[in-house]
């Protein structure tokens, strides 16, 4: 069929208009379908920070539910924490699963279960092999189970001297770039028993060594060990700033102790980490996967309290009653021990959409690996 010239012109204009509309619609869809990769990954680990602990801490601090920054993160799921030999995990097996994608037995640090289990390469070690910068920050001892599972491999989490040795002789990569935590006295004793000093050992391996977190801002490789608490946000912020200088990116694990055998301390640490996540998320930028989870839950429950009166005052009033103990506090009682229910995983940034539903803790390794584009 033949159209007159004016009709052909109109048809061409309509076709061009339709093509433009299709392009406008399809471009965002294509952008959404294009896989995003993270330049950096920050894993925030609340040790014993189960859902009930987060809930109680938020209400205690802010007198309203769902008041934590963690509770506003856009992607959430529930993670099974059981180990290969127990329904209730310890930190060694719990963190091994997150860092290696493999479950193991309680007490085992990043090694396969059973006698003679092989070392399991950790996400931090994958990052080291690919030239990224890496960091481990904790308010616990630097050789304890959670941080150790990032960089060491031991059949027993109690192998303190072996774990210290592996800080200097890593199995994969060239070792963590920034280590910050407690355990200064332990390090001094461990290296002294081998005829050297912690200062000599770490300096000889190319680290700045000391007990002042300000060292982090002055060296790309630093080990800061203390036996006292330190201000969390400035230290973590300085670590992020230092690691971000690497154009290839970085992996950082930040552990904050949320055990509530001392309820006030544990719940305070929840608020400290929550504030930290809020501010570090803004600092790190949109090319960073931010992931929060816990290695296991704990036997704390919010069991009482009336609205309209600060929950902290009600908790304190119960705690001062004659014969009061953490276990019989009518507002927030604590059964002193780990528990086996699923824990929350919350995420934002590239790859965060993979955190959803119920899943084993080993899947968090895959989430981080895929966010980097390594799978």
UniProtKB/TrEMBL annotation:
GO terms for molecular function: alkaline phosphatase activity; metal ion binding. Mg(2+) binds at residues 47, 144, 146, 255. The keyword Zinc applies. Belongs to the alkaline phosphatase family. Its cofactor is Zn(2+); Mg(2+). It comes from Novosphingobium chloroacetimidivorans. Binds 2 Zn(2+) ions. Binds 1 Mg(2+) ion. The keyword Kinase does not apply. This is Alkaline phosphatase.
């Amino acid at each position: 069929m033949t159209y007159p010239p004016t009709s052909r012109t109109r048809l061409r204009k309509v076709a061009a208009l339709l093509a433009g509309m299709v392009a406008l619609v399809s471009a965002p869809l294509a952008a959404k379908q294009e896989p995003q990769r993270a330049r950096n990954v920050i894993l925030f680990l609340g040790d014993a920070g189960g859902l009930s602990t987060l809930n109680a801490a938020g209400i205690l601090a802010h007198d309203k539910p769902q008041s934590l920054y963690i509770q506003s993160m856009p992607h959430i799921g529930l993670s099974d924490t059981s180990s290969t030999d127990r329904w209730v995990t310890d930190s060694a097996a719990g963190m091994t699963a997150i860092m290696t994608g493999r479950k193991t037995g309680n007490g085992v640090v990043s090694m396969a279960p059973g006698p003679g289990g092989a070392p399991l390469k950790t996400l931090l070690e994958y990052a080291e092999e690919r030239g990224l910068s890496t960091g481990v920050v904790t308010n616990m001892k630097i050789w304890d189970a959670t941080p150790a599972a990032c960089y060491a491999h031991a059949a027993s989490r109690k192998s303190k001297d072996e774990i210290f040795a592996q800080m200097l002789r890593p199995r994969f990569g060239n070792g963590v770039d920034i280590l910050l935590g407690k355990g200064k006295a332990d390090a001094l004793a461990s290296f002294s028993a081998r005829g050297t000093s912690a200062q000599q050992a770490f300096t000889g391996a190319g680290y700045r060594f000391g007990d002042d977190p300000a060292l982090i801002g002055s060296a790309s490789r630093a080990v800061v060990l203390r036996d006292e608490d330190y201000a969390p946000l400035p230290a973590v912020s300085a670590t992020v700033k230092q690691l971000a200088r690497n154009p290839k990116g970085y992996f950082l694990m930040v552990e904050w102790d949320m055990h509530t055998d001392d309820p006030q301390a544990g719940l305070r640490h929840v608020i400290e980490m929550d504030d930290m996540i809020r501010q570090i998320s803004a600092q790190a930028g949109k090319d960073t996967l931010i992931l929060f989870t816990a290695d296991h839950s704990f036997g704390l429950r919010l069991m009482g309290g009336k609205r309209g009166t600060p929950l902290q005052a009600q908790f304190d009033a119960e705690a001062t009653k004659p014969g009061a103990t953490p276990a019989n506090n009518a507002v927030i009682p604590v059964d002193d021990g780990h528990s086996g229910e699923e824990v929350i995983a919350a995420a934002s940034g590239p790859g965060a959409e993979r955190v959803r539903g119920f899943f084993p803790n080993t899947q968090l390794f895959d989430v981080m690996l895929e966010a980097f584009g390594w799978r």
